[in-house]
Amino acid sequence: MELSPLEVQIRILPSTPGVYQYYDKDHKLLYVGKAKNLKKRVSSYFTKNHDSYRIKSMVKKIVTIEHIVVETEMDALLLENSLIKNRNPRYNIMLRDDKTYPWLCIKKERFPRVFLTRRMIKDGSEYYGPFSSVKTVRALLDLIKGLYPLRTCKYDLSADKINAGKYKVCLEYHIGNCAGPCDGLMSETAYAANIDNVRNIVKGDYKNAAKHFESQMMEYAANMQFEDAQRIKEKLEILQKYQSKSTVVNSKITDVDVFSLISDETHAYVNYLQLSHGAIVRSHTLEIKKKLEETDQELLEIAIIELRQRFNSQCREIYVPFEVKLGDQIKVTIPQLGDKKKIVDLSLRNAKFYRQEQFKTIKIVDPDRHVKRLMAQMKADLRLDEEPVHIECFDNSNIQGTNPVAACVVFKNGKPSKKDYRNFNIKTVEGPDDFASMEEVVHRRYRRLLEEGEPLPQLVVVDGGKGQLSSGLKALDRLAERKNHHYRNC
């Protein structure tokens, strides 16, 4: 039974975390959703009976499914949030602005406060996150509070007011949570050093703090202060489980276009991620059929120009995996480390998944074309003289050095040819000698094919390493056939 275009789209979806987008016949966005497993989640819309009229109505209108692959379920959650707010899909229940994800803020002020917030204000303050839950931020704040005495009051701690004795210490000072900068009991330099340590911990550089905790925990345990040791152990565990900010939402990467490319002998695939205000708002992958012997650089340059024009991008900076020439009007960055490199890697991941999905589509709707493309790719990758339409693979086994056996599996035109499978009992080898066993079965197999006038394979694969490969080649040397065939160990 022939599958519909929509059924094919569902069939080729990956089983990874990501965000899916439903479009109608006019390519208007209907819905954005997140998934731990894209294939299972999307399939559920079309296999279940839905009580909701809204869902039934939406499913009837779906014509096209697009998706963005991410690393984690948390990234999927954050990406869903940013896409909904940016694209306003018709069938989404909009997430309210005051219910957005939490950030940790280091306030721009004298003796900075460190606190949780859901609003980012452009006043020079530093924001770290977003975090997958408020619980994570509060645990981190508790950790910071236990490590460094920081103020929580909202007073204007100017030098004049402190020197005039306008403020007095509060309860936080008396219970050890604050060092009393409001009353001149802590210098601005010492407080700034604490804030620097907080920055390092929030950024994920917590090795020194972890060593300090471990030393403290061992000291308490040695003194049989087990409750205190347990308390320090819990803080250490929180520190070790701390998760740094997401790849898909990053306040330090503002408006930028990200491009990546993956290519084979006949096609190139270019993924485009558009970031606005630190969040991914669009993903699109372009397939380019090679006409001449274009380099990857030339293909990426062409794709960048086309995609930026198509989506009317005005970004002045782009991230790419290798050098491209686009003139002086656009800043080209080739990230090597850090958050920028992660976002380029995410783009490349989506390009690879798109290529795999195209292969799956061809396999479903045009199996013969799929086999031809597969054979051409294998010929190029393995540097063969002809396409490997006939492949044979060998493996040996034994039971603790006894009862040695071997097997040969055969593929013809990209499919298993089970009628040609063969099992072998090793006859000439005693004991666990895998190399000699491989030589025997290869020799027996191709001596038989030559005697019966059967066609020989274009590719022979042996399981193992150089020893097994050498043994197989030795057997072929004995049959004087090695000069007409290429062999590789896999």
From TrEMBL:
Keyword Coiled coil found: no
Alphabetical list of InterPro entries matching this protein: GIY-YIG_endonuc, GIY-YIG_endonuc_sf, GIY-YIG_UvrC_Cho, UVR_dom_sf, UvrABC_protein_C, UvrC, UvrC_RNase_H_dom, UvrC_RNase_H_dom_sf
GO biological process: nucleotide-excision repair; SOS response
Keywords recorded for this protein, A-Z: Cytoplasm, DNA damage, DNA excision, DNA repair, Excision nuclease, SOS response
Domain UvrC family homology region profile as annotated: residue spans: 262-476
Classification via PROSITE patterns: GIY_YIG, UVRC
The keyword Nucleotidyltransferase belongs to this UniProt entry's keyword annotation: no
Any one Gene Ontology cellular component term annotated for this protein: excinuclease repair complex
SUPFAM superfamilies in the record: C-terminal UvrC-binding domain of UvrB, GIY-YIG endonuclease
Positions of the GIY-YIG domain: 15-93
Domain of life per record: Bacteria
GO molecular function: excinuclease ABC activity
Protein name in UniProt: Excinuclease ABC subunit C
Species this chain originates from: Nonlabens ulvanivorans
